[in-house]
Amino acid sequence: MIIPKADRLQHVQEYYFSRKLAEVRALQAQGKSIINLGIGSPDMAPSPATVEALTQSAQQATTHGYQPYNGTAKLRQAMQQWYQQLYKVELKEQEVLPLAGSKEGIFHISMAFLNPGDKILIPNPGYPAYAAAAKLAGAEAVTYTLDEANGWLPQREELEKLVAQGGVKLMWINYPHMPTGTAATAEMFEWLIAFTQQHGLLLINDNPYSLVLHQQAPLSLLSIARAKENCLELNSLSKSHNMAGWRVGMVLGQREYLAAILAVKSNLDSGQLLPIQEATIAALQNSNSWHSARNAVYAERQQLAHLLLEELGCTFQLNQIGMFVWAKVPQEVSNVEAYLDELLYEQGIFLTPGKIFGSQGERYLRVSLCAPAEQLQEAINRIKLSKETLTKV
Ligand SMILES: Cc1ncc(COP(=O)(O)O)c(C=O)c1O
Predict the structure, then answer these.
(1) Which among 255, 283, 311 is the end of a domain?
(2) 249, part of any domain
(3) Same domain, 185 and 59
(4) Which atom of ligand 1 is least distant from the CA of 247?
(5) Measured between alpha carbons, how far is 108 from 265 in angstroms, rounded to an integer?
(6) Of 24, 30, 155, 372, which is most buried by a Cβ count within 10 Å?
(7) What is the pLDDT of residues 137-156, one digit of tens each?
(8) Cα–Cα nearest to 274, from 66, 52, 47
(9) For the segment 323-364, what is each residue's pLDDT rounded down to a tens digit?
(10) How far is the CA of 254 from the centre of ligand 1 (A)?
């Protein structure tokens, strides 16, 4: 007997990486050496002070119970100070809500603000979780187009047309943008805030990459005048502090909005383990030199990723922000997915097809910088060796 699944799962598939990494593991189990340049999970350690705070705290008998649903006051204050120092954004303690990663925030926000039948605007290409969370809430995801010709930035004319169709309640932006590595500009944030206020939309910036290989001072949507009226920002320690597995993030914005999110969250989890919260406080105090050292490692890997992409005949922009390089596959490749599968099965190199981020990513691929330089070099060597035999599918 098979009990049918809920209707809401009809349009939601298992996450791409959940499926594809199982395939990668199966190849590894057969003894194949696979260079995984797929997922963006940092392979470097958090700062020593972070790990020390975790272990110190975990040794106490009193740190293992349930915790406040909205985190400890000390954690909220540490996040508040971090935003003040880094992004020059003044927040009250009630304008900070710690989360178990920003991905859960995407789900909570969708549950807190969307009714069945509502529409949301999401970037194409963009992080797949925005659409999945909206669908689970019974809402419809409508894509706006980002493309190379427009510098991967939203276009006002298109947004006007989409909103004119009616029913749009919320808009997601994600700058610095994943997967294209595009930086935000204050000017873009300004017109987006004016636009969304004019149309009564909630605007959310998902901002987990602003400390990775950035060239200018990190920018927050909330640093723009009047942003708090209709904007929220998600942030995360996953990438910026090498803490992806720890599941620590935050949502920031007006307290009324956070209260709605907490109404969802407090019914799902029972607070974050106290040692993780205490270690997060330590992590948020990582020095500038700690961040620079991490970025120096990524910068070296970025150079190697560029060499790898040149070997593959791909074109790409230099100086992308974040821990990926987004690149266009050569014109003669007719089927990008088959081409990447050939790279995986023949050369043992796993790269992410751009189309998992939307139709605008169809001619692109994404290389993760979360692998040691030696592995990137090995990938380059494998391509060089195989170049004569690699058939373009
Ligand atoms: C754009 C974007 N948002 C959110 C996340 C999720 O981050 P977290 O680990 O904080 O849940 C990712 C992770 O890959 C991401 O790329």
Answers:
(1) 283
(2) yes
(3) yes
(4) 9
(5) 6
(6) 24
(7) 999 999 999 999 999 999 99
(8) 66
(9) 999 999 999 999 999 999 999 999 999 999 999 999 999 999
(10) 22
